[in-house]
């Protein structure tokens, strides 16, 4: 008869210490998982707050200081749109991708690429084009998380807006193609001869 291996014997006749280790190990695994999950969610939530966004997007709040002057801040319905509402996806995978790709912004901030008003304005058009391109790629996913074309009351819109909204898909357009300056100022046009 063949002699049983160590693992086989241990599993069939566990000692009292081994039996106690299973529930304690399970409890430790559960506690670490819960702490990790809560910690992860707190970090994701905090890095999507306006206070966090402003820390990088302008020590003097260059991007944030113009936001209260635009329609997505002073809404007729009283709804306050935050930075994350427009710049961070709601779904998990796209949200995580945005968090990863935002590291380039941290890198540029660390380098001081746009840490003064002049540097910020010099890069404004480039930054805006980058955001608009991302929004076009996702068919303005963040806009559509609040604005549903299929639920719009076209009779209450201006005729030109209603006409555009009704045929934007057929025209190959998305929200950002017409609504670029709802929260931020228009980039300055480059000087002639530059």
From TrEMBL:
Superkingdom per UniProt: Bacteria
Residue span, NapC/NirT cytochrome c N-terminal domain: 28-187
Membrane topology: Single-pass membrane protein
Chain positions recorded as heme 2 binding sites: 83, 86-87, 184
GO molecular function terms noted in the UniProt entry: electron transfer activity; heme binding; metal ion binding
Cofactor: heme
Binding site residues for heme 3: 143, 146-147
An annotated GO cellular component: plasma membrane
Binding note for cofactor: Binds 4 heme groups per subunit.
UniProt key word Transport: yes
Pfam family, any one: Cytochrom_NNT
Major localization class: membrane
Modification note: Binds 4 heme groups per subunit.
Cell compartments where the protein resides: Cell membrane
Record field: transmembrane: 20-44
Residues noted as binding heme 1 in the record, renumbered to the chain: 53, 56, 105
UniProt: heme 4 binding residues: 175, 178-179
Keyword field: Cell membrane, Electron transport, Heme, Iron, Membrane, Metal-binding, Transmembrane, Transmembrane helix, Transport
A biological process from GO: anaerobic respiration
PANTHER family assigned: CYTOCHROME C-TYPE PROTEIN, CYTOCHROME C-TYPE PROTEIN NAPC
Protein family according to the UniProt entry: Belongs to the NapC/NirT/NrfH family.
Name assigned to this protein: Cytochrome c-type protein
Organism whose genome encodes this protein: Ferrimonas balearica (strain DSM 9799 / CCM 4581 / KCTC 23876 / PAT)
Lineage of producing organism: Bacteria, Pseudomonadati, Pseudomonadota, Gammaproteobacteria, Alteromonadales
């Amino acid at each position: 008869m063949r002699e049983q291996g160590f693992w086989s014997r241990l599993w069939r006749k566990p000692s009292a210490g081994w039996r106690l280790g299973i529930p304690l190990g399970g409890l430790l695994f559960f506690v670490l998982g819960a702490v990790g999950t809560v910690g992860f969610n707190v970090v994701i939530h905090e890095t999507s707050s306006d206070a966090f966004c402003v820390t990088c997007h302008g020590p003097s709040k260059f991007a944030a200081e113009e936001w209260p002057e635009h329609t997505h801040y002073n809404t007729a319905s009283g709804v306050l749109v935050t930075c994350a509402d427009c710049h961070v996806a709601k779904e998990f995978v796209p949200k995580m991708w945005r968090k990863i790709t935002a590291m380039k912004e941290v890198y540029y901030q660390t380098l001081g690429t746009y840490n003064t008003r002049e540097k910020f304005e010099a890069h404004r058009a480039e930054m805006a084009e980058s955001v608009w391109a991302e929004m076009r790629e996702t068919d303005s996913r963040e806009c559509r998380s609040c604005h549903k074309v299929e639920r719009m009351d076209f009779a209450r819109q201006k005729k030109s807006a209603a006409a555009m909204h009704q045929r934007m898909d057929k025209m190959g357009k998305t929200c950002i193609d017409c609504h670029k300056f709802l929260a931020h100022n228009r980039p300055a046009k480059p000087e002639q001869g530059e």
